[in-house]
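Notebook p. 47: complex prediction with EPU.
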Amino acid sequence: MQWSSVLEREFGAVFHRNEELGAYTTWKVGGAAEFFCCPKEEKLLASILKVRSKQEFPLWIFGGGSNVLIPDEGLEGLVLCTRGLDSVLFEEKGNGYVECVLGAGVSLSHWLGESCRKELSGSEFLTGIPGTIGGALMGNAGSRERYIGELVQWVETVEPDGERVRHEGKEIVWAYRFCGLSDSLRVISRCGMLLRKSDRETIRRNFLHYANLRRGQPHNVRTAGCVFKNPPGEFAGKLLDRAGCKGMRCGDAVVSVRHANFIENRGNARAADIVTLVEECRRRVYRACGILLEPEVRFLGDEWGFLEKD
Ligand code: EPU
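Predicted complex, structure tokens below:
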């Protein structure tokens, strides 16, 4: 039986067809998902992956949509959105520590707001970062020096065979914009983060400090954060700026004049426009200094061959 018929038969009632994905992304770009599902329970997530382990079909995991580019043609197969896993619990751990037990779909801003209200400190460096916990963990999001993996006590995942596994934070490999869990098509479902009790004034000062680091970034425009990772010992933004990329335009996609590592959607940019800019930016930096920038944004779909060919 064809995989699409299997999906219809097994999960027809909970799947949407042709869901427009652009609306789910911060770039507001991209086509529709053939099948789309936003499970509210880990059980459903696990049974979908179990079915897939017997009958393979294209699967895309989607969190806050703040670090992805969806092709204009959309995505064949199933897009699994984790935003329905949105529970937030706080558990006292003694000695002034509190564990936040967070569903993968909780937005970072919601978690930060709740923690601040409870006068918990430790996560302020994540201020201003869009997206959900699951995506932030998979990309080990953070500021320049600090990253979310530092706070992780444990992560629960649904593995590609549908099994639920708990990974201890210390056993996971964390590096700059890298998480060891991203090596296979597993889905993060929940995690535990450790924060400590503090006071409003200290937390406010921390927020201001980290907000200040982001002052030079574009605000209130549709972007996907930094497009490229910083190469070792260098800053992608600086290299792109020096290579003359600021202000480059393709359709409604523009390399930010405020910070060269951001691409803005100034209207109705298409994914193809953004990719044209990404390619040209890489080319220019490579020509200028011999460094091939590695994207931080994830390009979903199969047609972005340029990344492998280089
Ligand atoms: N710079 C330029 N021209 C530009 C942009 C930057 O010369 O157009 C120079 C700056 O003057 C500075 C250096 O490049 O000397 C670094 O720039 P910035 O301070 O803006 O930091 P960044 O390395 O570009 C990193 C993270 C951001 C994070 C900020 C603040 C990466 C790729 N970016 O930016 O994370 O918000 O530090 O902590 O690691 C993201 O990952 O999506 C992201 C936005």
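Notes: The radius of gyration is 20 Å. The mean pLDDT is 94.
Next step: compare against the earlier run before touching the bench.
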